[in-house]
Specification:
By secondary structure, the chain is of the alpha+beta class. It has helices at 26-33, 64-67, 84-88, 93-99, 125-130, 137-140, and strands spanning 40-45, 52-55, 78-80, 107-113, 122-123, 143-145, 149-171, 177-192. It has one domain (21-192): ADP-ribosylation fold (Alpha-Beta Barrel), CATH 3.20.170. It is globular and about 55 Å long.
Length: 196
């Protein structure tokens, strides 16, 4: 595993942005975290490191939520959110424990402009929530792209802490709780990716 020293994670407010090609400034990123009107879609990956990468729509893996009818398992998609913070809410409790380990690798954030996605190949968060296609979409702001999409590496982040903010109880037709989804807000350090 790579060992990133503290200088890698210097506060971006102290970084000269001349060596970077930011799509957004640090203040704009933080503003986007507080709003729902981002012009970009974000995807956080645990293991990708390419400058650009093409993601292809796929069905989610077989899981308990799909088997129990709480998540759509029929629509092939690439999942996005409207902010880094909302992307991180999609990570489960096991991932949160991994983030606490000192040797945890940084996460890579990829972005694409909404303008590059045809409207007929985009399923909005509002639609996903309304149709109950994913149980935690209200918190993650998850949206879907239904065609291959080229993403650009934007930054690296390292989660430094997290707080549980909600617990979604999933009930069967009889009203019995059959599953729980904890939702976490994450704190993280961020570094924009240098031009290659």
């Amino acid at each position: 595993m790579s060992n990133f020293n503290n200088s890698f994670w210097e506060d971006i407010t102290n970084v000269s942005l001349e060596a970077y090609e930011p799509l957004l400034t640090f203040d704009q990123i933080k503003h986007r975290e507080m709003s729902n009107n981002s012009e970009f879609l974000y995807h956080v990956s645990r293991d990708e490191n390419a400058n650009t990468i093409t993601f292809h729509p796929r069905l989610p893996g077989d899981n308990e939520l799909i088997r129990d009818g709480f998540e759509d398992g029929k629509v092939a998609r690439v999942c996005f959110s409207d902010s880094i913070g909302h992307c991180l809410r999609a990570f489960d409790a096991w991932c949160m424990k991994q983030f606490k380990k000192k040797d945890t690798l940084p996460l890579t954030v990829y972005v694409v402009s909404k303008k590059d996605i045809p409207k007929n190949k985009f399923i909005s968060n509002e639609t996903i929530v309304e149709k109950k296609l994913v149980p935690d979409a209200e918190y993650t702001h998850e949206c879907w792209v239904l065609q291959p999409v080229v993403l650009r590496k934007y930054c690296k982040i390292k989660v430094t802490g997290y707080t549980k903010i909600a617990n979604i109880e999933l009930k069967n037709k009889e009203g019995k709780v059959v599953n729980n989804i904890p939702i976490y807000d994450c704190e993280y350090k961020l570094k924009l990716c240098k031009l290659q």
